[in-house]
Write a structure and sequence with these properties.
This protein is an all-alpha fold. The protein is 90% helix and 0% strand. The radius of gyration is 14 Å and the shape is elongated.
């Protein structure tokens, strides 16, 4: 289950990054519409909360929070490096 939580975290951070005009334009070569930004923002936060739920189900509240923070850190680094690589 931690792998599913990690995948949800990566997808959540990627959606939040795509909700930003700069990153959306960097990847898709066009400005996002307001509706698309709102939907990506909503999906990003929903996926991050889903990853929290998966971590909680895996290790309980105290252990799940530790797992979640660790997975969020790794997922944020992965998305950051992917966007930096895409810029080149």
């Amino acid at each position: 289950m931690p792998w599913l939580a990690f995948a949800a975290s990566v997808a959540g951070f990627a959606a939040l990054a795509m909700a930003m005009s700069r990153h959306h334009k960097q990847v898709w070569r066009r400005e996002p519409s307001r509706r698309r930004q709102w939907l990506l923002h909503l999906a990003g936060w929903a996926l991050l909360l889903a990853s929290l739920g998966l971590c909680k189900a895996h290790a309980g509240w105290s252990g799940g929070m530790v797992w979640w923070v660790g997975l969020l850190t790794l997922a944020a680094l992965l998305v950051t490096f992917a966007l930096a690589w895409r810029a080149r």
